[in-house]
Amino acid sequence: MRIINVFANDTELSQKTKKLLKQKLEKSGFFVPQEYDLNAELIICIGGDGSFLETLHKYNFPSIPFIGVNTGHLGFFQEVYPDGLDEFIFKYKQGKYETQHLKTLKAEVTTAEGKQEFMGLNEILIKGVKSRPIHLNISIGDSFIERFSGDGILVATPAGSTAYNYSLGGSIVDPRLSLLQVTPIAPMNTTAYRSFTSSLILPPYLSIRVNPEYSEHKRKGMLIVSDGMEHFLQEAEEIIFEFSNSIIKLLRFDNSDFWTKVKSKFI
After folding, report:
1. Whole-prediction pTM value?
2. How many Cβ atoms sit within 10 Å of the Cβ of residue 95?
3. Of 40, 80, 237, 267, which shows the fewest CB atoms inside 10 Å?
4. How far is CA 233 from CA 111, 147, 218, 239, in A?
5. CATH for 2-96, options being 3.30.365.10, 3.40.50.10330, 3.40.190.80, 3.40.980.10
6. DSSP code, position 219
7. In the annotation, is 227 catalytic?
8. What are the domain boundaries of the chain?
9. CATH class, range 105-245
10. pLDDT tens readout for residues 110-150
């Protein structure tokens, strides 16, 4: 039995598309379960990029390939539109697609109570609570770089370079490249504080180590945000960013081109 998981956000168009897609898949010989099935050969996510990322996190970055049906806005991860379901099913059954492999990012956080790990496909960022500035000692590899002061920093993968990173003034990176990008969030530059104001582009084998500084009279906490999902960190002593071993497989068809998408979405 060929199993395909299908998930959709709650919008009317997404739910309508899910119902229609389920009918078409079952007529084509596939089984679509009600709940997530570990034995599925494909995950179809209906919605926008946000829905795709939520599904990814909900099921813990599975090794099962993904494809997206775009009922949202930007749709960088989405490959199919609601009016192209029949063509998608035909091409999928014929094996007329390529698999794009996307590297994921992890942040290992050390606190007095132990370690926590957070994952992201687009980006992971750290920032102050309630928009307070934070002070971070940043090292790359074995080299100390600076004492950063500002709202926070964002570490992005190539896949995430067109997301929040781009809004912060970071560079758009072709996803075929393997690198990490560190982008400052509202850096402070005064006689008292000096921080880098542009992105740093790093090779994939270097890690970014962050050691926060806290004032005695302020709450010792910050936020870590992975693909838009917030988590409060109490007294984080060290945060290490690096590529993880998890790879996300995304189906692409012959009409898919990254720079064509960039042009259509941003220009």
Report:
1. 0.93
2. 6
3. 267
4. 8, 20, 14, 11
5. 3.40.50.10330
6. -
7. no
8. 2-96, 105-245
9. mainly beta
10. 998 899 999 999 999 999 988 788 999 999 999 999 999 99
